[in-house]
Amino acid sequence: MEHYIEESQQHTSEAISAKELRDTFIEYVLMNGKLPQSVFQFMKTLNRRESEFYEHYNSFQALEKDVWMGIFEETLSKLKSEEVYESYSAREKLLSFYYTWIEVLKNYRSYIVHTSKLSLRPDNWMNSPIKAFREPFLAYAKSLINEGIDKNEVVKRPYLSDNYDKLVWMQLMFVLKFWMDDESRGFERTDAAIEKAVNLSFDLMGNSVLDSVVDFGKFLFQKYN
Q: What SUPFAM superfamilies does this protein map onto (predicted)?
């Protein structure tokens, strides 16, 4: 038998907000262990007209995408509200983003763990709501990388540096999956994984053994061609 949201039983003439829809949707999924069968059924639990849903979203998938976009935007808002953030290096800014992102994710952990294991599967990736904030995150990552290049934290390399942002996105998905599977107290293993992953990525993007390998490869190519 499906559970309904008790406090939503009384009809109100006030317009329902997108946030109310998202919050109620998340609660519905957690209470029932599945998505609503239809928009009509979902809005019935709120004693609302189906048409009110479409004032904000055209499908449940659009709503789910907005959940992820909201988490990303809340993370950036929290970061930028801290005056010290602007004084950080690119490496420190990415570390701060990950730590803050995980703190925001904790507010939605049950929902995320329940819905995202399927979304993170390679065969379902094209339809994943998680992709909703991919482009905004890539823009954010690229801004950090460009800042790192300007401040000599990151080395500009042919072909490679144009794809650093995509590597950071892959790292973000690694962090998400690690956190979802993390059973350590206070998610301390996730904190450690974030630090190691970010340090490794900036070590590789900066002056590193990678440059020596590339230089040696160029030397061999010139010698034998």
A: Tetracyclin repressor-like, C-terminal domain
Which of 41, 35, 44, 97 has its CA nearest to residue 71? Answer: 97
How is residue 95 annotated by DSSP? H
Within 13 A of 120's CA, how many CA atoms are on the CB side?
Answer: 17
Alpha-carbon Rg of the chain, whole angstroms?
A: 22
CB 48 within 8 A of CB 129: no
Pair 105, 78: CB distance under 8 Å: no
Looking at residue 55, the DSSP 8-state letter turns out to be T
Residue 145 clears pLDDT 90, i.e. is over it: yes
Q: Are 114 and 123 within 8 A, CB to CB? A: no
φ and ψ of 15, to 5 deg: -65, 140
DSSP string, 154-171: S---TTTGGGHHHHHHHH
- Annotation: CATH topology of 64-119+131-211: Tetracycline Repressor; domain 2 (1.10.357)
Look at the chain and count its residues: 225
- State the alpha helices, DSSP H only, in the chain: 18-32, 39-45, 50-53, 60-80, 90-105, 109-119, 134-150, 164-181, 188-205, 209-224
Angle at 196 between CA 84 and CA 154, to 5 degrees: 65
pLDDT digits (tens, 9 = 90+) for 97-137: 999 999 999 999 999 998 886 555 655 656 789 999 999 99
Domain ranges across the chain? 15-58, 64-119+131-211
The model carries a pTM of 0.84
